[in-house]
Each structure stands twice: as C-alpha cells, then as structure tokens.
Specification:
By secondary structure, the protein is mainly α. It has one domain: ABC transporter involved in vitamin B12 uptake, BtuC (Orthogonal Bundle), CATH 1.10.3470. The protein is about 70% helix and about 0% strand. The protein has a two-stranded antiparallel ribbon with strand order 1-2. β1 and β2 form a beta hairpin. α8 packs across α9 and α12 runs parallel beside α14.
Length: about 375
C-alpha cells in the first residue's frame, strides 16, 4: 500500500510517515530550530571575535534596534502564511510617526492620545489593504506596492522635509527605559512579549489560526471547509496596520523625531526576517518562534558588522544573500526529498514483480 502524500506548492511533501516520528524529532529537527541554533552560534562567535560585542550595552541597543522588526513581524507572519504579503507596513510606520508629531506639537494632544489616534489610523490603512485584497480580489503584491507609495506620500506631504523633534522628555525616556536598571533589556520588550503571547495563541492554539494555515495551503478548500477566507485576510491586514502604527509610535519616541521618511525600507527587513524564520513564501507553513529567531539573527549580524566598521550596504548584501539561500534551500530540500521518495516508490513494484515471478516458477 502506498503512503498518502500531500504535495505542497513549494515542492515539499507531507506524509503520514513524517508524523510517525518521535515528538522530539518533530520538535527539534525543524527549520525553526535550525534558525534558533544558528542565532546562538552567530551570537557566541560574535562574543568571542567582535570587539565590545560582549558588552551589556551592545545587547541593549540590539534589542532597541530590532524592536520595530519584532513587532511588525508578528502579523506579517500570519499574512505570509496565507500566501499574501504586505509591503506597506514601513510606510504606515512613517505615517503614524508624522501623525504623532503633528498631533502632539500642533494639536496640543498628549502623547498617549496621539498614539491611540495614530494606531487607529494605522488599523484603517491596514483594513483598506485587506478590503482590496480580500473582497475586491486584487493581488496583495500590487495593492501594497500602491499603498506603500500612497501612505508614504501622505506622510511626506504633511510634513514635507521638516521634522517634529520637541517631544516630552518623560515619553522619550520611557521608550529607552530598561525593565530592570543595569540590565540590557529595554521596556519595549514588555509590549512585544504581550503581543507575542497573543499571536502565538491566535496562530497555534485557535480555530482562527488553523484557518490561516488552511488558507495558505488551499484557499478554495478552506472556503469549503467553513473558513471565512475574506474576513480572515481582512483582519490580518488590519492587525498589520495597527501593529505597524504602534511600531511607528515607538520609533518616533525612541529617536525623538517625526519624519515622513522614517523606517524607509523596513518592510524588506521584516519580510527577510519572516522568511529566514522558516515561513514559506508560498504559504501554509511557518511558526512564530522561528520568526523571532529570524529577526534576532538579522539583529545580531547587523550589530556585529557595525561594530566591525561595515557599512549599511555591506550589511544589506549579507542579509540578502542569507534570504536567497534560505528560500533556495527550502525548494532544494523539497526537490531532493521528492526525488528520493519517487525512486523508492519506483523500486517497490519491480521487487514485487520479481517475487511474484519467483513464486510462479516455484508453483510450476
């Protein structure tokens, strides 16, 4: 009897045999755990070979730098698992930054009120993306390229080339505050961990999360199985807009500057981190612990290379090469395993025919 096989769009295949493995193999021998091991290895190497990398101050600034990526990567993971993509997240960061600056300095609002308004506007921007993708049926790549330019244009149009820099000191200090004095863990990790817990429960422990995976595997089959595909995508894009706006508020307070070009190009770093973390660009596969490891991997590499005096262009080249290799390795491993399985299945019938022939000769 042949083993039932489900072939995925990225060339990988899942069989019942794969789930017959011991739990520790299914848990440890995964792409996500490989990325976590790589993060640990790169961090350990940098500690011993990069000057000042072992300083607690380096780890502190590493967390400050990757905090916006960590936040935005959470909803981006769910969007890519459904087979969609959102390239407008960085422009929402810039737009929310401008709104906070204008509302606080020109409108006289407090920072918390301005932040809530900016997050609400970010949610509306994300919902607009989701409506065009889920209900109008436009491709997410085209939609979010368009809204990337739209939201960035609005942000730059509001402030032009000027910047709002006079923010209350207690809020700018809070954005850089440490959880425990003397420790390298900034306060921004607390809202991130709260959101991480929420997204983990949503993706991995709820019917909504199972629907997200179903959509990524086959959205038509998910629709017939009772998943509201359009509503699910709408909510995911809305969450991406709201969380991106939250990252924009943090970005503004941390640097004390509201500009229309804040976070320019950050969307590529977020997508690179998500794909490095084991999420399939074809949808249907991925886990949040791998994505967090992917973000930290980018952060560790960037921090180590900056301490070594490398330019931003060189750092981007290294990260781009890692991203390409991660995508190629997934397809290559899927192709190799498929070839092995096909050869194994092809050899079984000949063995059966040989045994049948031998049996017939004996009976004759």
């Amino acid at each position: 009897m042949s083993t039932p096989v489900l072939t995925r769009p990225d060339g990988q295949a899942r069989t019942y045999d794969a789930y017959a493995q011991p739990w520790w193999k299914r848990t440890l021998l995964t792409r996500e755990m490989a990325i976590i091991a790589l993060v640990v290895a790169v961090y350990a190497w940098s500690m011993g070979n990069v000057a000042n990398f072992d300083s607690p101050l380096t780890l502190y600034y590493l967390f400050l730098d990757v905090a916006p990526l960590l936040l935005i990567a959470l909803p981006m993971t769910l969007i890519i698992i459904t087979g969609e993509i959102d390239l407008s997240v960085a422009s929402v960061v810039g737009l929310s930054s401008v709104l906070v600056g204008v509302l606080v300095q020109d409108g006289g609002l407090s920072v918390p009120v301005a932040a809530l308004i900016a997050i609400a506007v970010g949610a509306v921007c994300g919902a607009f993306n989701g409506f065009l993708v889920a209900y109008v049926g436009l491709p997410s790549l085209a939609v979010t390229i368009g809204t990337l330019a739209l939201y960035r244009g609005i942000a730059v149009g509001i402030l032009g080339t000027t910047a709002k820099t006079d923010f209350p000191e207690k809020w700018t200090d809070l954005s850089k505050e440490r959880i425990i004095e003397g420790q390298p863990y900034p306060m921004i990790l607390i809202p991130f961990l709260v959101l991480l817990l929420g997204f983990v429960l949503l993706l991995h422990f709820s019917p909504f999360g199972r629907g997200v995976y179903d959509i990524g595997l086959n959205d038509e089959a998910a629709q017939f199985a009772g998943v509201d595909v359009a509503r699910t995508k709408l909510w995911l894009f809305l969450l991406a807009g709201a969380v991106s706006a939250l990252a924009g508020v943090y970005f503004t307070l941390r640097f004390g500057s509201a500009r229309g070009d804040n976070a320019n190009g950050m969307e590529l770093q977020v997508i690179a981190a998500v794909l490095l973390g084991g999420v399939s660009i074809f949808g249907g596969r991925g886990a949040l612990h791998g994505v967090v490891a992917g973000v930290l991997l980018i952060g560790v590499i960037s921090s180590a290379m900056r301490l070594e005096g490398q330019t931003v262009n060189v750092i981007n080249i290294v990260i781009g090469v890692l991203l390409v290799l991660s995508v190629i390795s997934t397809n290559l491993l899927g192709w190799v395993s498929g070839q092995v399985r096909s050869r194994t299945r092809g050899s079984r019938p000949s063995t059966s025919r040989a045994q049948s022939g031998t049996s017939s000769t004996t009976e004759g």
